[in-house]
Write a structure and sequence with these properties.
The complex is a heterodimer. Chain A is mainly alpha-helical. Chain A has one domain. Helix content of chain A is 78%, strand content 2%. Chain A is elongated, with a radius of gyration of 21 Å. Chain B is α/β, with parallel strands linked by helices. Chain B folds into two domains: 214 residues, P-loop containing nucleotide triphosphate hydrolases (Rossmann fold), CATH 3.40.50; 60 residues, Alpha-Beta Plaits. Chain B is elongated. In chain B, the strands form three sheets. Chain B has a six-stranded mixed β-sheet, sandwiched between helices. Chain B is 37% helix and 26% strand. Classes of the chains: A mainly alpha, B alpha/beta. Chains A and B meet through helix 1, helix 3 and helix 4 of A and helix 2, helix 3, helix 4 and helix 6 of B.
Chain lengths: 265, 305
């Protein structure tokens, strides 16, 4: 009755099986697609908003102050800083939905080497988040550029660098969020943490006149991301901001591995 | 084969599983019984490595579950039929499961048809009824064509047809030489399905015996002998007093516990006593079980077989 008519292989698939499984899981729930649509729509709208406001500001300057054109990729950067919370939600859902539904127990049963679960989720998320970043960056740049009209600078080199930076940032911020999602487990809690660490705290502290707080902001993932994206050199050059970001995502995933391996599923 | 050595799990002050030593052999259905909170699910979870034992080890075919290169090929388990994403279709759930262990997708179609979910495979798993969910969980357990199967309350929510189907499935899996370890609250069902019975109470082993021994060992299993001559009754009664656990006399009948009917018959023959009736009244598994677990609660001791 239950005898297999196929031969099930005896050789371990290692992390490859876990990665294939995570890939399948990601694309077989509707929330993945809804998030992509929502993220794209939001970025498009933000792009238009930033484009129009740039054009309006440029057209209403005091006489004699003649502004130059604005790179369209800059609109992408501005839009992404706002909409990154949607991407963070995208990155954490494969983790938090498993805790809320209890399916993490199935996952651990299928892939008992737990470190491979975190690695597989990261391996699937990394390219997808990078692609998501390219997509939303481009959407914001195009919608913003069109809204800016003749103030838009469409030079391809600058745009390419901006898009790659956006994609890199969203990938790293997403991996960090996925990592801490293993620690926090609940959707609401993880989203709150991501919102605070990626957006709110860096935004508040970054504007501070107290130097130490500016440093704290620059060393938080969101602050490092903003400095990296906007090319700020103070207090850290963009390359070091990128290093800070990488360290945060590695640390987030490391925490994910640690708590998943230690806790009863 | 599943082997547990000194398996213990404590949560703070509470001991859920207490130094459990147990071997679950291949080729038969082993029923796993115990009151709620006795530690059945915790034991199964430790076998799969979902929960880490506080001390002791759980091995499947000599190795921890996580050490097997293709774990789903070794152990298939249905512990919690609801441990899945409610908005993923049943088929996609099984495909994700198959890919995790390098199992071909064709096997997914196979197990879906084995459990009879082919017409609803595209439906979201969260919309499944309890019974359909159990079938999906069983499909997952069969997916890797495993040598060892564990089921926690598999007939929960199944209709009578489904119950019978699960019973036949368990029997045929064991007949194929697999290890089948199944917990249930339904004693009548266990009596029909299991060969071997493992009973735990408060995390401790109370019994690990063939089901027939458990039932025969119950004080509620008895031999009834009808003897028309009063004097003969007294003779047999005296003769049995030494070896029986108890001999009761009601009317023309003796009710003997702790001695098989064969022995009573032989003795009567030896003594030249005429019998009108000699029959065994078997305790039900439920009676035997309640007796076992009641005494475990009372004395808190583990007595194997």
């Amino acid at each position: 009755m239950s005898t297999a008519t196929i031969t099930v292989q005896q050789r371990s698939t290692g992390p490859a099986g876990a990665i294939a499984s995570e890939w399948t899981k990601l694309w077989t729930v509707r929330s993945t697609w809804l998030n992509l649509v929502a993220g794209a729509a939001l970025t498009g709208l933000l792009g238009i908003q930033f484009g129009f406001s740039t054009a309006y500001d440029n057209a209403h300057r005091p006489p004699g102050d003649v502004p130059g054109q604005s790179a369209v990729g800059g609109v992408g950067v501005s839009a992404v800083i706002i909409m990154q919370v949607v991407v963070a939600a995208f990155a954490m859902l494969p983790v938090t939905s498993e805790y809320s539904s209890g399916s993490i127990r199935s996952t651990v049963q299928w892939t008992p080497i737990r470190r491979n679960i975190v690695l597989a989720k990261a391996a699937v998320l990394a390219p997808v988040l990078f692609g998501y970043g390219l997509l939303v960056g481009l959407l914001a740049a195009v919608s913003g550029g069109l809204a800016m009209g003749h103030w838009a600078d469409w030079s391809v080199d600058t745009l390419a660098v901006d898009l790659l930076s956006i994609a890199t940032y969203l990938m790293l911020a997403g991996l960090f969020t996925a990592g801490i999602a293993f620690l926090i487990r609940s959707t609401a809690g993880t989203l709150t943490a991501a919102f605070l660490l990626l957006l709110m705290i860096p935004l508040m502290l970054g504007e501070s006149s107290i130097r130490a707080l500016v440093w704290v902001s620059a060393l938080l993932p969101g602050g490092a991301g903003q400095n990296f994206l906007s090319g700020n050199t103070d207090p850290l050059p963009p390359t070091l901001s990128l290093v800070v970001l990488v360290l945060w995502s590695v640390a987030g995933l490391w925490i994910g591995v640690k708590v998943l391996c230690r806790r009863d599923a | 084969m599943i082997s547990l050595e000194g398996l213990t799990k404590t949560y703070g002050e509470t001991t859920a599983v207490d130094a459990l030593d147990l071997t679950v052999a291949a080729g038969r259905v082993t029923g796993f019984l115990g009151p709620n909170g006795a530690g059945k699910s915790t034991t199964m979870r430790m076998i799969l490595g979902l929960d880490a034992p506080t001390s002791g080890i759980a091995l499947v075919d000599g190795r921890p579950y996580a050490d097997w290169p293709v774990p789903l090929r070794k152990v298939g388990a249905l512990l919690d039929a609801k441990a899945l994403h409610p908005r993923r279709s049943a088929r996609n759930h099984l495909i994700a499961m198959a890919r995790s262990n390098g199992i071909p997708v064709s096997r997914v179609d196979e197990v879906i048809s084995i459990v009879g979910l082919a017409t609803v495979e595209k439906k979201r798993a969260g919309q499944y009824s309890l019974g359909m969910g159990q079938r999906l969980g069983i499909a997952g357990a069969l997916l890797g064509d495993p040598e060892i199967l564990m089921f926690d309350e598999p007939v929960n929510g199944l209709d009578p047809d489904g119950v019978r189907w699960v019973r036949d499935l368990m029997r045929s899996l064991a007949a194929e030489g697999r290890t089948v370890f199944v917990s249930s609250h339904l004693m009548s069902e266990m009596q029909l399905t299991a060969d071997q019975l493992v009973v735990i109470g408060r995390g401790r082993l109370i019994a690990d015996s063939p089901i027939s021994t458990v039932i025969a060992g119950s004080s509620r299993s008895s031999v009834h002998v009808r003897i028309p001559v009063t004097a003969d009754r007294a003779v047999l009664r005296d003769r049995l007093a030494g070896e029986a656990d108890g001999v009761e006399s009601t009317g023309d009948e003796l009710i003997v516990t702790g001695v098989p009917a064969e022995r009573v018959g032989d003795l009567a023959h030896e003594l030249g006593i005429r019998l009108h009736e000699l029959r065994t009244k078997q305790a039900s598994l439920e009676e035997a079980y309640l007796e076992l677990t009641a005494s475990s609660v009372e004395y808190g001791v583990a007595v194997a077989s």
